[in-house]
Amino acid sequence: MKRNVYVSAAASVVLIVGGPVAAAAAATADTVRTAPAAGGRADVDAQGAAEAALKKYPGVVESLDKDGSVWHVDVISKDGKGHAEMEVASNGTVTRISKDTNDNPGEYKALLAAKVNAQQAMKAATAAHPGKAWAVEWDDDDGATYWHVEVKDSSGKTWNAHVDPTTAKATASGSDSDSDDND
Question: How does DSSP assign 23-73, residue by residue?
Fold first, then answer.
């Protein structure tokens, strides 16, 4: 009961402060979080993995994906000179980190300037297609910049989206597919 009150209160604040993108994200807040597992342990979702990684290494998430029960998160430092590759366990603990501090800041200029970050892109994608964010990646290889987000629905199908880094508009990309990846 308290959880519903907190979620409702948080959604109200988001709606007042954040506008239309935040409204869509707030409407799907419950679909983004994973229910607690047996024994009271909560399995961290994509948003939780991003939060854990950013606490350990502040910056901007460049990519995030799940492999079995482990999240792989790449974070670029706010000045663009550093890069950390992390593994986040299902309980939200960062279990491994590899850092590099010799990056070229120009390489990450568009990512660091994007108005929509990885967490917002995941929320926009799950608002457009209900499910759980499974992976997010900054893409600027073909000259256009966007977030590529994979959303898995309750039947296990994967929906691929491109999320605009300025407007947070999510559009379908590629084809939906059945997936047999590990949860």
Answer: HHHHHTHHHHSPPB-GGGPBPP-HHHHHHHHHHHS-SEEEEEEEETTEEEE
> Distance between CA atoms of 125 and 143, rounded to whole angstroms?
22
pLDDT tens, position by position, 13-31 = 333 444 443 333 333 333 2
pLDDT digit string, tens, across residues 59-106: 999 999 999 999 999 999 999 999 999 999 999 999 989 999 888 888
Residue with tokens 């994979």: 150
CA atoms within 13 A on the CB side of 112: 17
Pairing of strands 83-88, 94-100: antiparallel
Q: Which residues of 77-99 are buried (b: 16+ CB within 10 A; e: fewer)?
A: beebebbbbbbbbbebebeeeee
